[in-house]
Design goal:
Layout: H1 8-18, H2 32-62, H3 65-72, H4 74-92
Helix pairs in contact: 2-3
């Protein structure tokens, strides 16, 4: 039988059932998982706002929504292409500027 991975909520419920604390004490979950959860929540807000600001700046520059969207559409391609390009440059031990 395969083992099941317990999530954060499962661990909290288990701890609430098995750990008995004196009055005035409480458990607080912290550590890497808590930091990761907070960072993801922050990024879910910051990334869309950043992309919207980029689009607005492109519109201010070009004065046309069509041209702005065309330039904006290059962002995913730049993200996807940056990794293979940097990897191929590191395999050749040459800077990408050459």
């Amino acid at each position: 039988m395969a083992q099941q991975r317990l999530g954060r909520e499962d661990h909290q419920r288990l701890a609430e059932r098995t750990v008995h604390l004196p009055p005035g004490y409480h458990l607080e979950w912290a550590g890497e998982l808590d930091n990761l959860t907070n960072a993801v929540a922050r990024l879910e807000v910051v990334v869309p706002i950043s992309l919207l600001l980029i689009l607005l700046l492109l519109y201010a520059n070009f004065g046309s929504i069509r041209d702005s969207l065309l330039a904006f559409s290059a962002i995913p391609m730049a993200i996807i292409g940056a990794r293979p390009m940097s990897r191929s440059a590191s395999l050749r031990s040459r800077p990408m500027s050459e």
